[in-house]
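Hey, I'm writing a tutorial for new members on how sequence and structure tokens pair up, and I'd like a real worked example in the thread rather than a made-up one. If someone can provide the structure for the chain below, I'll link this post from the tutorial.
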Amino acid sequence: MLRTWLEHPLTRGLDVDDPRTTERRRQIIREKAFLRDIYSDWYSAIAHALPQGPGAVLEIGSGAGFLEDFVPGLITSEAFSCSGVRLVLDGLRLPFRSGTLRGIAMTNVLHHLPAPRRFFSEALSCVRAGGAIVMVEPWVTPWSRLVYSRLHHEPFQPDTPNWEFPSTGPLSGANGALPWILFERDRTQFEHEFPQWSIASIAPLMPFRYLLSGGISLRTLMPDWSSAFWSSVEKRMGVRAHRMAMFARIVLQRLDEPGSGHNMERGPGR
């Protein structure tokens, strides 16, 4: 009942796999200044983490976002045709020649890919040595378990033994806990299966601000002018904020050869 009451009227009753829902979400992000500030912070961090040098950057799941404002020449893409994207593609079948990308960027996308092994294999072919996958994804903490299980519409299953999950459409299938499962719970297994993807950094972040903004699906719980205040509150929390994180910024570096060395940096509190 609480989630129904908080639901944003622009997305109420719409099918998440319908391109019209993505267009509505684009409108919401642009109209909600609090939420737009959050996306700007995410995009700035993603742009900073992308490697320099030759090759293009592909964004998977560009949909309602505006990362192109932060990454010049960005190749935007989505699983279906919608405004503001250059390519319609399947994230499990990337149509790029070997080593042509210097990076892949994603915001809240990995946990929608029903066959993550296939994605990382495809990305391994497309991304050059020294390139990276940079993403912002949901993360698992005691606090996020409570929020995602009570207030979020997507499945959140940190205890599932499987990386894969069933999907009926490009956005309707999900496991919000998948990034944590891959890079924290099953980290050793991931590194064994994909030795050329080094987990360069994991930075847990944002325990409150996204929830207070209402995200894309819910109404804003705080006035737009309070965005900077809540940002400063999270910064003052220090390590405690990371231990209550709802998201994480994750950087995977493409190594030249398996076993050529790993940067084991992790975010505070890790």
